[in-house]
Amino acid sequence: MFSKWQLTAYVDVVNVYGSASPSALPVVNLQRDAQDNGVIANPTAPLAEQYYLLETGEQDRATTLPYFGLIFEF
Question: Which of 65, 71, 63 is nearest to 20 (CA)?
């Protein structure tokens, strides 16, 4: 019944050695209001000129981050 099916489990650990990443890209997040909607910086401007407010921060470049997953193929 399962002769052509495959189930694979995997673990991927990002930055397992804890080294600082050479990437200096900032972390960018959308600012949200109390209803969890994005905050528009200029809501009275024409629709084509409106834009959302963003928050930027620094990366935590020395964090080890594990990923777990399953792959099911048939």
Answer: 63
CA 40 – CA 61 distance, rounded (Å)? 30
5-9 — which CB contacts under 8 Å span 24+ positions?
Answer: 5/72, 5/73, 5/74, 6/71, 6/72, 6/73, 6/74, 7/70, 7/71, 7/72, 7/73, 8/70, 8/71, 8/72, 8/73, 9/68, 9/69, 9/70, 9/71
Kindly report whether the global pTM for this prediction surpasses the value 0.70.
Answer: no
List pLDDT tens digits, range 3-45: 789 999 999 988 777 777 666 677 889 999 999 999 999 999 9
Encoded tokens for 29 = 């997040």
